[in-house]
Amino acid sequence: MIYIGIDPGDRGAMVALDAEGRLVDSITADSRGGGVGYYLDGDPDPLAVTAWINTFRDRGVARVTIETSFAPGRIGTANAITIGRRWGIHYAAARASRVPVVLVTPAKWSADLFGGKKGKDAKEKKAVGVRLVGERIPELCVVLPGCRVAHDGLSDAACIAVWSQLRGVYR
Questions:
Q1: What whole-number distance in Å separates Cα of residue 99 and Cα of residue 64?
Q2: Where are the domains of the chain?
């Protein structure tokens, strides 16, 4: 079984883990670090997202878990529409792949993985996520070649995949 985690953000990513939580594949939305990236003209390419998910169909996709979009009122209408459009493309591509889709909020997966500690700021949560990925998926390097800091979309997508995989194991 394959568990796919998707961070649909601007610097998002997709990560696939097997039933034991080992890395199967990953791809970032952008092309930082020499990667290919699956964005086309500033938005996710729906055909690329669908094709990437479909590469795992013969191995049995247990579920695709997508972080639900969140657009606080203070960011403006144009930004909120962009966030929703990017989320919608990922969601539609996953649904087009005809695999189970689960939606999870950032608060839910981070609370479950990080012990439910409230009051952590976003920077601290990102650091905890990077550490968790390093411990659970050491073969996934979240600091891409030529970069000095972790790709937060890649670490978030990996955490979402871990959350999904653990949810499948303990359910």
A1: 7
A2: 2-170
Alpha-carbon gap, residue 158 to 140, rounded angstroms? 9
Looking at residue 38, its amino acid is: Y
Q: What is the largest CA-CA distance in the chain?
A: 44
Beta bridge partners of 14: 6, 27
Look up residue 85 and give its two tokens: 């459009």
Q: Residue 128 and residue 10: Cα distance in Å, rounded?
A: 21
- State pLDDT tens for residues 92-103: 999 999 999 999
Place of tokens 């608060």: 107
Beta strands in 23-136, from DSSP E residues, in sequence order: 23-28, 39-40, 43-44, 61-67, 101-104
Fold of the CATH domain 2-170 = Nucleotidyltransferase; domain 5 (3.30.420)
Locate the DSSP E strands across the chain. 2-7, 13-18, 23-28, 39-40, 43-44, 61-67, 101-104
Torsion of CA 21, 25, 28, 33, to 10 degrees: 110
Q: Nearest-CA neighbor of 5 among 124, 140, 117, 131?
A: 140
Say which range, 61-65, 73-77, 101-105, has the weakest mean pLDDT. Answer: 73-77
Q: For residues 53 and 94, is the Cβ–Cβ distance under 8 A?
A: yes
